[in-house]
Q: What sequence folds into this?
């Protein structure tokens, strides 16, 4: 599959992904990833300096499931909703069936009292593989601009 | 028409729709809808609880026209512009020629003194039908996150 | 080339353009334009009234290069990053191989201390020509809503 043919199904994958999170269907979230995968949230600064410090780091689908389970059970954080905007999806390359994709994102956050604020902006750097059932992330790096995160980051971005 | 073929023309419809509103060509706005149609703006909370309370409710193109006319004539609200961003357009299903589409949106608002603020985020749940002249909305539900709306909602979202 | 066939490559051009700016690869920025070109940033109000006053005005690729050079050398402005979101890309017409394109944009800005704010919203009105190597801007008008710009506009939008 060439880069052009991969564009639309990868856009669909990203669209489904953000609707899944925004609709609070978090139990389905790990299914966007392969069994062996990497999901990490890291600041732009740390990424550029090659510093390993991350805000979230999961290297298997099992860890993604654990994270959702603890989020559901602990549940000590303020009730909130995300609204993701994604833009400028660019399939920048492919090596041995793994597509690298850059996408700008913005997350807005609405809390219980109903006010919405800008929560986080940044860039997804994703690695995507196609299977019979469709594409999945083998790696998703959320590289965020906003290092001043007003509250604990609980829900995946 | 299958879901994949419907994707691009529906994206075009949504793009035209938001440019129409943002360009203040509101007289053309009702033409995006069928004669019998439903346009409503409802909070996420009310929608999830199946509460009927809406912020705007029009069930014919005539009512949409009335709304624009009264907006133009009453004109007692502060002069303002919207800027819509739409993202993650998903054609989620089709039944008897009616396509259901989910889209994330953000509306920014600029007032007379020239400052821009985040006004509203949410999700469009649209039902779209194709005619010879192109697709139209038979239903558009604007399901908003932001229940704290700082000023009266006058212009359609 | 008809409008429909031009849609995807023009979307790609815009996506590459915003990633180039957001990644701070500003030395590549002039290459998105033709040798003879027009790049200007103007307020919505001035554009609608046909007033010539602009915030930035460059009418050749050389001037675009000069601008980046002076930005790099002067460097007296606060370190900052942009994050562009683009939406509702509409190829609205074509005349003698020149495509006119309307796109909504939002720019968020992150400063050194790591907080992100809404910086500017508006509309790109672009004129695009296709060459063997791909499409380029012969004209890019950044028509902004936000006249209250909190700090000097240094980086191109």
A:
């Amino acid at each position: 599959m060439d880069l052009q043919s991969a564009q639309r199904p990868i856009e669909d994958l990203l669209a489904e992904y953000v609707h899944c999170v925004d609709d609070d269907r978090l139990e389905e979230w790990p299914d966007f990833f392969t069994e062996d995968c990497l999901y990490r949230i890291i600041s732009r600064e740390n990424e550029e300096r090659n510093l390993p410090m991350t805000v979230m780091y999961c290297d298997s689908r099992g860890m993604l499931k654990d994270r959702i389970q603890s989020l559901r059970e602990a549940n000590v954080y303020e009730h909130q909703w995300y609204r993701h905007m994604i833009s400028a999806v660019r399939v920048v390359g492919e090596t041995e069936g793994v597509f690298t994709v850059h996408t700008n994102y913005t997350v807005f956050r609405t809390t219980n009292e109903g006010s919405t604020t800008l929560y986080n902006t940044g860039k997804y750097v994703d690695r995507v593989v196609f299977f019979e059932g469709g594409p999945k992330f083998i790696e998703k790096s959320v590289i965020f601009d906003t290092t001043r995160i007003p509250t604990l980051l609980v829900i995946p971005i």
Q: What stands out?
A: The mean pLDDT of chain C is 93. Chain C touches chain A at residues 8, 12, 14-16, 18-19, 22, 81, 83-87, 106, 108, 110, 113-118 (CB under 8 Å).
